[in-house]
Design brief:
mainly beta, 11 strands
């Protein structure tokens, strides 16, 4: 069992930046597919970015490509999400997630992930 804890959410004006961090309770996290999802009020949880297990490639949702950057620090069992040029439509609760699988076809599906953090709120005002 892995516990995930997110931090770094907050409120920012459009065009601003925030960095989210996710800390895991086990170093096993470093060998998992690790990613970020978000959920806005009244909407389904959606994929944001991920590292694919074993291969280490990064994947991004089209809506954040070029603005968000996912990174990792295996020495600290953490991943981060640097969010730049934020837009009001980026407002959501952001979740860290992990899965012991690296199946590319399901990388963007919330159901493919076994472990979730509690979420952190990001609010972008216009």
């Amino acid at each position: 069992q892995i516990q995930l804890v997110e931090s770094g959410g907050g409120s920012v004006q459009a065009g601003g930046s925030l960095t989210l961090s996710c800390a895991a309770s086990s170093r096993d996290f470093n060998s998992y597919t690790r990613g970020w999802f978000r959920q806005a009020p009244g909407k389904e949880r959606e994929f944001v970015a991920a590292f694919r297990r074993t291969y280490g490639q990064t994947y991004y949702a089209d809506s954040v490509k070029g603005r968000f950057t996912i990174s990792k620090d295996n020495s600290k069992n953490t991943i981060a999400l640097q969010m730049d040029l934020l837009k009001p439509e980026d407002t959501a609760v952001y979740y860290c997630a992990a899965a012991p699988r690296g199946i590319l076809s399901t990388l963007r599906a919330p159901d493919a992930y076994d472990y979730w953090g509690q979420g952190t709120q990001v609010t972008v005002s216009s």
